Amino acid sequence: MTPSRRASWTLALALAFGMAAAPVRAAEVRVSAASSLTEAIQEASAAWAGQGGDPVVFNFGASSLLARQIAEGAPADLFFSADEARMDDLAARNLIDGKSRKSLLSNTLVFVVSAERGAAVASPEDLLKSEIQTIALGETRSVPAGIYAREFLEKKGLWDRVRGKVVPTENVRAALAAVEAGNADVAVVYKTDAMISKKVRVAHEVSVSDGPRISYAAAVLAGAKNAEGARRFLAFLGSPSGIAVFQKHGFLVAK
Amino acid sequence: MTGLLSSETAWTIAFTLRIAALATILMTPAALGVAWVLSRKTWRGKSVLETLVALPLVMPPVATGLILLKLLGRRGPLGPFFDRMGLEVVFTWKAVVIAMMVMSFPLLVRGARIAFDEVNPRLEQMARSLGAGEVRVFTTMTLPLAVRGIVGGLLLAFARALGEFGATVLVAGNIPMKTSTMSLAIYNYVQIGRDDRAWPLLAVSVAICFLAVWIGETVLSRRGRLV
Amino acid sequence: MLEITHLELPLAEFTLDVHIALRSRVTAIVGPSGAGKTSLLETIAGFRTPRRGRIELDGETLFDAGARRTVPARRRRIGYVPQDDTLFPHLTVRRNLTYSTASRDDGSAGSFDRVVAVLELEPILERGVANLSGGERRRVAIGRALLSRPRLLLCDEPLSGLHPELKDRILAYLQAVGEEFPIPVLYVAHDAAEVATLADEVVAFDRGRVVSRSAADKSSRTT
To answer: ipTM of the predicted structure?
Structure first.
């Protein structure tokens, strides 16, 4: 190869590498957060940025998936899970900074149906009706929303009778979307999810006393590159102004 | 989001294109080397190499992705090494590059090998009799005469890398503005019921792949000599 | 001076079995097609490996089965003009001619100009190879081999595949080459008459073996 050809190849490679590498940003905080938190935590982080906080980069998904990613080495600074069990999992692997762990929020389970022509599901027992053919739930062994839903249905003695109708989804928002799209008759999601969608309506709300104990856990991760920024962000989320944002979106404060 | 292309969509398209290009470029030397060896040499275990190279083409992509995750993740054999070097691989753009390279490799090897097979070995022999060493034979005879087939293979490999999903989703996740490729973003949007955001990505994906394959086919099928 | 000692190379229908020392400047090996002449040339050039025997050129051992020594084709400095020319299709005539680095080594364009002049290649130097006539291709192949500054030139059926008028012209070129460049040449042909006029010695060859050898009868040469 002639020298000039070699030079152009080197240049092309260098450019490609340069372009591909994520630009080095000054201290961003990388947060892996449950899908149900999407709108609320984004609004909170905007408020925090307004106060001069480090820019926050989000990775939303089912808490089970996020925990798995972290266990496999995904780079993140803060993990905000929709249940304690996923956090316990990471704690057992020494992947979190135990001292930073907080249980900030709770939520309510609701049954949602299509806003337009949704069936009447006034009580959990209505799931047994023959017109209810598909029930969208987060995957019931991993996704917290799915686990909570199953716990509740088991408690009501309904699980074995309705599990044949269950369509498991990757995360709670996918369950919501299934009802929005008319692909499922009913979904069990968080009240906070139902609030963001105009295409569904809440057919039944599970009361706090009746339902499973829902608790969102948050912690700074052991391998965090920006642990300091993560701590500050978490502190903000737990502060009165942070909590107010979550409440506005329908979250309950943890007891 | 206003407009046909939100900034996140634009980022996703640009990211996918440059990562796929990077993956294709990075694997080209190795792919050409393997293709040349498969074309020109025979030895007892040759079919083992051929099978290994073809594996990512036939295995379920998620299976390949899982293997990569196990190899490159924190709990894998390379995990401690990456940790010590301060290298983040899984769930970053680097993992996307690796997944694309692994999945596209067989396509490029295949195209290049066929191209090398079609080069008349007598021409290489003649070059040798005129004093050319093996490297010069490769760069002045084999490669120029195989260029058309290699370019076709490159375009196919690039198109495959663009569309890569199964392996990528496992080993790189779908982190917006970090590892989200067009395919991953489409999947995610459909999942959460935002088809409206999936459509522009779908249109761009199809257009690019169509272009890549169409150029590949016309380049490959043109008769006559490479001028 | 080419010495071939007990060379054995199994072919499809018989075994090449050659034992001969060639000392003439121009030797013609003639025999019917299928006699193994091309295989012999390819073996001397280094493209095929005999099972047994030795090849020595000007005292240098190019191949010795017993001692397991073999010099690769690229270092033998033997020019080879095959029956089908095997021109490089992606290069111009000029680049075909100058492919060998030896052709440029000496720095002087002298030998290039000489070869081009003798073979009258000037008009076609910048042409691509695809549209050359049979005669032109032959001349380019010869020129290319010459320009690699070989110590031995092998020509396989240099007049085959050409129209009769063309044969005479190529013959004239070959004679001119023989006069201008003092390199030992080994011609192979199935028609003795064709190359007899060029050769100092004629070796008859059949079914892989030398049958007879004799000094060429040059009386039939015109001029």
So the answer is: 0.89
